[in-house]
Amino acid sequence: MRIMIIEDDRVLGNEIKLYCEKWGLEVVCATKFHDLCKEVEVLQPHLILLDINLPYFDGFYWCEKIRKNSTVPILFISSRDGNQDKIMAITTGGDDYIQKPFALDYLMAKIQAMLRRTYEYQDHVQMQLSNDLQYDFSQGLLRYHHEVIELTKMENRILAILLKSRGKIVSREELMMQIWSTDEFISDGSLTTSISRLKSKIRQETGVEDIIITKKGQGYLIP
Question: Do 2-120 and 124-221 have matching folds?
Fold first, then answer.
């Protein structure tokens, strides 16, 4: 997923960029503040972080301009705390608003929630885990020989997150943050329990071992 940061504070913009990249996101900081629409057109981002106070024209102006040609999610980031600014952000086409200063983990939760709402439910794919074992993203179902393996809501979310990063290690911190972004809370202990039960269910129902691999001190991986 490609994130575009439209922020003239280079220190803040770079701080956000580095943090987002740790979560596996591609991040580009805008530079052409006189022609942001052209830059958006070229970059084709999946989400835009947009400040209000910008050179040349403010964020409200650019939001309206971008909206004429794109439905990309726009998250306003601003130090302004007035209700009128928040109303303007929404009425000009913004999807959400976060006030500076903010914690980077809170910003990431917002970003992931917006990406999930916008793109995750557009998936209509089935992923093969092994012979006769597949996961249906469109329905959120795990099937073996076309029979559904019953999973709890938490087990389902964990499996979907790991599959979307298939081939890559997903840290416990990242797993918990992505689950929190869906308005579900999970503790460190309950995450361990949920993953253990998920692995056990798959093993018992299919006889297949090592669908989810634990990388000690790193996280989890579906190869």
Answer: no
- pLDDT, tens digit, 9 for 90 and up, residues 83-140: 888 888 988 999 999 999 899 999 999 998 888 888 765 544 677 888 788 888 767 8
Are 138 and 123 contacting, i.e. CB atoms less than 8 angstroms apart? Answer: yes
What does pTM read for this prediction?
0.56
- Quote the tokens at residue 101: 């200063």
As a whole number of Å, the end-to-end CA separation of the chain is 21
Q: Does domain 124-221 have CATH number 1.10.10.10?
A: yes
Handedness of CA 213, 139, 115, 117 (dihedral sign): negative
Boundaries of every domain in the chain: 2-120, 124-221
CA nearest neighbour of 172 among 121, 216, 124, 118: 216
Rounded-to-integer distance, Cα 168 and Cα 23, Å: 12
CB-CB neighbours of 168 under 10 Å: 12
**Domain 2-120: CATH architecture, name and number where available:** 3-Layer(aba) Sandwich (3.40)
> Is the C-alpha dihedral spanning 222, 188, 182, 142 positive or negative?
positive
105 CA to centre of own chain: 12
